[in-house]
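Box 3.1 A note on notation
Throughout this textbook, protein chains are presented in two layers. The first layer is the amino acid sequence; the second is a token string describing backbone geometry. Keep the layers aligned when reading.
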Amino acid sequence: MALFVLALMYFTIVIVTITLQVLLYKKNLNKTIFILNVLFSLSLSALAFTSFPLNFTIYRSLAVAFGVLAMFSIFVKLKSTHLLASKWILTIAILGNLILLFI
């Protein structure tokens, strides 16, 4: 029963990720969709960080690095005229966190 709940949680996370990424790459981007993606990436980073034991320092460091990468995408969006670069950085951060969760 507990594994079913875990599988359901992973399935829900994947569905939310796909939905947010589709909304992110729509033509008329809202700031709220971008911020929701950043918050989702940070929550995935926190979930990945806390899911590893203390002696898995490389994986925990990667989870923090992907969270920092999500924060960096905000600065790229604010300072650059290329909106697509910030979207790509955010997508890399989200996919990296998903890969860390499924390890």
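The chain has a mean pLDDT of 90. Residues 2-102 form one domain.
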